[in-house]
């Protein structure tokens, strides 16, 4: 019995493809008749040929369609690559065009400074050091392009209120590539404290003090842009999102216009070593550090002279920082200016620049 079942299953499996083909032909083409009597066929033999021809034509059409699809995909891919390449060229051309006004403006302001004496470049900052010698005074200019807000910061002497250190000490301690002295200070009980409103890391060191007389606040905001001026309320300053800054006197340029220099600062002293910080309309910074052999008013530059020079250089805003024996410029670990004290003076605040 098991042998019979096995034989039946074998013949069923063996004949299954034939039955499947017949069913497919029956469904897809003209009816194929069965032999009713020997030598007699009930359907036209041409129908079978037509069925196979239809199937063959369908297969050929499918092959042609597949070949056309492959060709279309190849053409589309080639067009995509050409389009992508063209778009990349257009984008690069747009970038080059957009950068032209910036490079033209930079060449224009650089032409008024001369040839850089030294240059520091990195992906965070570009600093160019120039000599300044218009005839009435001598000193140095430092043009700074901040590519990252954290490439500049203000430091506190010994990181403590009341402590002071030289700009070179501060630069060395923090690993800065350049630095200048910052705000003014007041001495009390053998200690040296920053003058008026002073900020570090977005916080007020001694609280906010409204601007009075000729004092101003100057510093950088969280986006690495120079901010400064007189502020009569903390809310007014806070709107600018200051990151750090210090105070001194007086403002030299504001929004591209010369300010009135108070008579007191025009004559007391007449000439002196100076440190000034400002910015161009493209937000590049400019620093002037002017030499003088003493603080008696006979050497260095007048504020009027620096105001005129900065104005002619196209500087938009400019602020006079602490000067005299405090004026300091450190570049690549070297003291660049000639301090009037014969050596750098320890001060409480410094603006440092990082590579």
Summarize the helices and strands and which ones pair or pack.
Layout lengths: L1 H27 L6 E3 L2 E2 L3 H67 L6 E4 L3 E8 L6 E8 L5 E5 L10 H8 L3 E4 L3 E4 L2 E4 L4 E2 L2 E2 L11 E6 L4 E4 L4 H5 L3 E7 L2 E4 L2 E2 L4 H5 L6 E6 L5 E6 L12 H10 L4 E4 L8 E3 L2 E2 L13 E5 L2
Antiparallel strand pairs: 1-2, 3-4, 4-5, 5-18, 6-22, 7-20, 7-22, 8-9, 10-11, 12-13, 12-14, 15-16, 15-19, 17-18, 17-19, 20-21
The level of helicity is 25-40%
Poorly predicted ranges? 2-8, 10-19, 29-42
How many domains? The number is 2
Discrete helix count: 6
Total number of strands = 22
Biggest sheet architecture: 8 strands, antiparallel
Q: What would the principal axes of the Cα set say about the shape?
A: elongated
Q: What would you call the structural class?
A: alpha+beta
Q: Radius of gyration, rounded?
A: 42 Å
**End-to-end C-alpha gap:** 95 Å
Q: Please report which band the strand proportion falls in: under 5%, 5-15%, 15-25%, 25-35%, 35-45% or over 45%.
A: 25-35%
Strands of the biggest beta sheet: in what spatial order? Answer: 3-4-5-18-17-19-15-16
What is the N-to-C order of secondary-structure elements (H for helix, E for strand)? HEEHEEEEHEEEEEEEHEEEHEEHEEEE
Mean pLDDT: 86
């Amino acid at each position: 019995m098991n042998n019979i079942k096995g034989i039946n299953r074998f013949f069923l499996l063996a004949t299954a493809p034939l039955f499947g083909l017949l069913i497919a032909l029956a469904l897809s083409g003209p009816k194929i008749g069965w032999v009713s009597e020997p030598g007699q066929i009930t359907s036209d033999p041409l129908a079978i040929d037509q069925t196979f021809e239809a199937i063959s034509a369908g297969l050929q059409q499918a092959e042609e369609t597949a070949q056309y699809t492959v060709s279309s995909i190849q053409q589309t891919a080639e067009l995509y690559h050409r389009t992508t390449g063209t778009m990349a060229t257009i984008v690069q051309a747009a970038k080059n065009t957009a950068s032209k006004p910036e490079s033209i403006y930079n060449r224009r302001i650089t032409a008024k400074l001369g040839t850089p004496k030294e240059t520091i470049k990195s992906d965070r900052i570009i600093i160019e050091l120039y000599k300044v010698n218009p005839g009435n005074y001598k000193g140095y200019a430092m043009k700074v392009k901040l590519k990252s807000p954290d490439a500049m910061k203000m430091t506190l002497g010994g990181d403590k209120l009341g402590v002071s250190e030289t700009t070179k000490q501060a630069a060395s301690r923090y690993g800065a590539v350049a630095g200048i002295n910052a705000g003014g200070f007041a001495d009390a009980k053998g200690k040296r404290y920053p003058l008026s409103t002073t900020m570090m890391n977005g916080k007020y060191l001694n609280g906010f003090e409204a601007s009075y007389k000729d004092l101003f606040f100057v510093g950088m905001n969280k986006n690495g842009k120079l901010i400064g001026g007189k502020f009569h309320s903390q809310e007014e300053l806070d709107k600018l999102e200051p990151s750090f800054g210090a105070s001194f006197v007086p403002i030299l340029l504001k929004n591209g216009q010369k300010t009135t220099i108070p008579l007191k600062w025009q004559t007391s002293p007449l000439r002196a070593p100076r440190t000034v910080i400002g910015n161009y309309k493209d937000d590049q910074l400019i620093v002037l550090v002017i030499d003088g052999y003493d603080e008696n008013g006979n050497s260095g530059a007048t504020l009027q002279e620096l105001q005129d020079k900065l104005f002619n250089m196209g500087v938009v805003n400019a602020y006079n920082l602490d000067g005299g024996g405090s004026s300091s410029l450190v570049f690549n670990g070297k003291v660049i200016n000639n301090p009037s004290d014969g050596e750098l003076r320890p001060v409480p605040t410094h603006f440092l620049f990082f590579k």
